[in-house]
Amino acid sequence: MTDSGPAPLPTADRLDIAARLRDALLAASFTADGLLDLLGAPAYAALARSETVPALRATRGDTPLETLVRLFLLQQPVPHARVAAVLPVEEAVEAGWLRRVGGDEVAATVDVRPYGGPGGEDWFIVSDLGCAVGGAGGIGQRDEGVVLGVGGASTTLAGITVRTPVAAALDLGTGSGIQALHAAQHATRVTATDLNPRALHITALTLALSGAPAADLREGSLFEPVRDDETFDLIVSNPPFVISPRARLTYRDGGMGGDDLCRSLVQQAGERLNEGGFAQFLANWQHVAGEDWQDRLRSWVPRGCDAWIVQREVQDVTQYAELWLRDASDHRGDPAEYQARYDAWLDEFEARKVRAVGFGWITLRRTGSAEPVVTVEEWPHPVEQPLGETIRAHFERLDYLREHDDAALLDSRFKLVPEVVQEQVGLPGAEDPEHVVLRQHRGMRRATKVDTVGAGFAGVCDGTLSAGRILDAIAQLVGEDPVVLRDRTPAQIRLLVEQGFLEPAG
Fold first, then answer.
1. What's the pTM value of the predicted model, to 2 decimals?
2. Among the residues of 272-351, which ranges form H helices?
3. What is the per-residue pLDDT across 163-211, written as a single tens digit (0 to 9) for each?
4. Would you call 56 exposed, middle or buried from its count of C-beta atoms within 10 A (0-12, 13-18, 19+)?
5. Is the peptide bond before 386 cis (omega within 30 degrees of 0)?
6. Residue 141, pLDDT above cutoff 50
7. 59, 2, 60, 69: which is closest to 29 by C-alpha?
8. I need a labelling partner for 132 at 20 to 30 A (CA). Which of 101, 418, 422, 462 fits?
């Protein structure tokens, strides 16, 4: 990377050389597991913070793996002879993966980061030099067209994506291609778009070096490159969602006012989905004075779609501005310029009456139901990734509940989900608990309070008796009118099913 712009990229049409490089990388154990074994956990974690000194210290030998780490992850020139013992150097130079420097050294032209796929696959994510392991090193000081590698947002989206087999998947704003790479494992056809042609080139390199099928790569913003008659079974996007005063950095700033980019993306996705198809996004949204943020997001959901929107984090406008000013390394430059940029962010928020900014996940599912369900919630608590199966099951439960009125619910049988445990909370020595909590230890890791009837009902649910018969037995035990109990309990059963504590049996 130079001050004049991003460096030239390797050619994307030499699949033979990409295959030879892949074989050489794997032979040297240049994999996620191999890196962890070589560097150790502290140095490996430091790389994710863009701190390279521990890794430099751990790669002072001359093994093939150490050579590759210094070359592709640490961007150090390495003697030609050392590299030639590991890689086909002349072919790699010819294809642009390496360049000659100095008298007898070679250097990488791109970052190559090992990445472990969900099924144990050994993949490689290509990105611009210095951009593979996060932005703490000062991404903003480089050309705005740089393409970043894997970050926390990328892995979050990959983890929440529903991974059922599909015919057609669309990755909007593909960047380095990680979402397209995941989609290629369960989609017959993958289309990837990006406004930045450099990102499309790097996506092609990522797919080739990972041994994945090529994608249909199209240049343009969001849905612009998609034909009017095209629909998909899966749409994913980690868009440039940062709410900033202007579109300064292509990889993060949306270029529309406020949260309009995320709103437009969500609203336009509905007509691009096939029946039963999913659209999943990461997004930022404004908390505006005088507005309910949940109502704001409900207004984004297109007609004909169920939606599950989860707010994971909220920052006040000062925290938000400081986060992204630091992301661009503005705090390391001229103090007066930093203050002016900070002021510009706060001026923008003040003009829009924005008090805070939320971050989270948005999942849409195209439904044929006349009564779509839109769930908007705040869940800042720890979860267990991957969540794709949890999200798929959530929408299946919505279908079940929609199809069963209270009478049908009472005729149904349920099972307590295996990872759910029951906790009783109360004062020591008390005869009865103050309340009972059901807690999930997988997925969303929810916890919910239930009354005595709810706790007894959940505890008995093993799929053998209908809900109505269980309630009749409970009514007899507690001396309550069974008709009254049957009348008031379905709402609690619905909540336990919707949140994943109970599942239909059979």
1. 0.93
2. 293-298, 317-327, 335-351
3. 999 999 999 999 999 999 999 999 999 999 999 999 999 999 999 999 9
4. middle
5. yes
6. no
7. 69
8. 101
